[in-house]
Amino acid sequence: MMRLPSFRYLAPRTIAEAAGHLSENPAETMLLAGGTDLLPNMKRRQQTPATIVGLRGIRELRQIVNGDGLTIGAGVTLSEVIADGRVREFYPGLFQAASQVATPQLRNMGTIGGNLCLDTRCTYYDQNYEWRKAIGFCMKREGATCWVATASPKCLAVSSTDTAPMLQALGATVTVVSSRGSRVLPVAELFANDGMHYLTRERDEILTAISVPKRDGRRSAYWKLRRRGSFDFPVAAAAVAATLDGPDVVDARIVLGAVASRPLECERGAPRLRGQRLSDEVIAEASMLAADIAKPMDNTDFELVWRKTMARTLVADALRDIRGDDVRGRRRQFARHELRA
Known about the structure:
By secondary structure, the chain is an alpha+beta fold. It has helices at residues 15-24, 38-43, 78-83, 85-90, 92-99, 104-109, 112-116, 129-134, 163-169, 269-273, 280-291, 304-323, 328-335; strands spanning 8-10, 29-32, 51-54, 64-67, 69-73, 173-178, 181-186, 206-212, 218-225, 236-245, 248-257, 264-265. It has a domain at 59-117 and 158-335: Uridine Diphospho-n-acetylenolpyruvylglucosamine Reductase, domain 3, CATH 3.30.465. It contains 13 helices and 12 strands. Strand 4 (64-67) and strand 5 (69-73) form a beta hairpin.
């Protein structure tokens, strides 16, 4: 049986109090919201903080507020995101992304902020301590070699968050707070393409809120590939957000997930859509251009060549979803179940 290591637990009631605790020793302190990622990692000794600052008692982090769009507190659970009618109506892609995270039980505990900050994953990293010790550990924790590509100077663990690609496609921003103050940055700037240092958030900062802008005529969709219909992390994903004027695309963003250490925006595929109708020909060309940046490594489930091929398929399916096609049968083929609140 894997047991948690010893740690000190603090339960602040305000963001300021939590930031104060975090600033005392940020190198040895970690934040706990739902715990669905951190606690298993601690049991595997992937992360061993001396102090944990629990965020569940901070009411400010548990609100969804209307404004110029929607502001979602980082402590809002994924189940609460899914159940919110505003998310389902105005941001269907975010509803689809949150609906496909893990299982209902884990979505009841896991938070949207936690999913954004989800630790990167790898076949050689997500093992118990004894397994990792047997191979001499890896670069991400206690070792010196990235076993995905032994000559690589950096860790190649993969980003496996479902909500981040969709929020990036939607043009969302995040607020991070520390005892030094607060700052707002686009979701795209929250991540770095490095499996070890995958977040630009400083160790003493707390992600407190996600703000999603409202734009008339915008449609969004999220498609995910995984081995099982539930629980599994993505091994390839496509998030698409497009503003339409009638049948014509005014603007679009395409972001791929689970093919690098951060969500990747497809800068070649989206321009092909602008000013065009979503015909089968346009969708085929745009999805091919978009998937060109996908360079998955041998760090998770399925053959990497097939994952690259499926990235193109996922983008095409997301675009057909936005076009208004009846994709329920196709969705069941990928998700294995209906996406429901």
